[in-house]
């Protein structure tokens, strides 16, 4: 894979109702190692995350930047990195960049000049898989707080294209074995 696109909340960090400041950001076990594995494998790694809390007034772009600065500092100290972070601040589901719409993923594919079949999108909700499907990426669903229910309740067209794993670390191992 040339490009690994990650959702953030529930994939990289523990999902809270809202992560509003750096102190609330906590990596999921194995996430740092997984992202370091992507870097070691020579993959471009990016994040595409819905952050509607900005438009809802719960926190600011500066708050989001501070959260990401903390995340990047810890990743870089442990051999990982994120090449680009894109986010959608809108809570309007008609916004083409807000997942389940594929806008942010298409933006990343164009930015890195990568074909969709050379990219994988890793998320933890059906909306992530729908965005990745519509962008033409390979799909990995990481188990979320709902257990396997998210996967089992997805429409068949998404399930057929989705690899289900327990963690981002497991996803990194799956990708390592893809042709």
From TrEMBL:
Mg(2+) binds at residues 7, 9, 124. The record marks 49, 99 as: Stabilizes the phosphoryl group. Its EC number is 3.1.3.-. The active site is at residues 7, 9. InterPro entries: HAD-like_sf, HAD-SF_hydro_IIIA, HAD_sf, Heptose_bisP_phosphatase, Histidinol-phos. It is found in: Cytoplasm. Its main location: cytoplasm. Belongs to the gmhB family. This is D,D-heptose 1,7-bisphosphate phosphatase. It comes from Phocoenobacter atlanticus subsp. atlanticus.
């Amino acid at each position: 894979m040339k490009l690994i696109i990650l959702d953030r909340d529930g994939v990289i960090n523990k999902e809270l109702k809202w992560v509003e400041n750096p102190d609330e950001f906590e990596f999921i076990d194995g996430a740092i190692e997984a992202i370091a594995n992507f870097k070691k494998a020579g993959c471009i790694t990016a994040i595409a995350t819905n952050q509607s809390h900005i438009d809802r007034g719960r926190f600011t772009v500066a708050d989001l930047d501070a959260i990401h600065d903390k995340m990047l500092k810890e990743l870089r100290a442990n051999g990982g990195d994120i090449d680009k972070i894109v986010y959608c601040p809108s809570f309007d589901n008609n916004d083409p960049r807000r997942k389940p719409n594929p806008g942010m993923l298409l933006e990343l594919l164009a930015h890195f000049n990568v074909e969709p079949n050379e990219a994988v999108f890793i998320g933890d909700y059906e909306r992530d898989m729908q965005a990745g499907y519509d962008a033409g990426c390979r799909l990995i669903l990481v188990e979320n707080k709902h257990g396997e229910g998210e996967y089992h309740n997805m429409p068949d067209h998404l399930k057929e294209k989705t690899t289900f794993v327990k963690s981002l670390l497991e996803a990194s191992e799956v990708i390592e074995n893809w042709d």
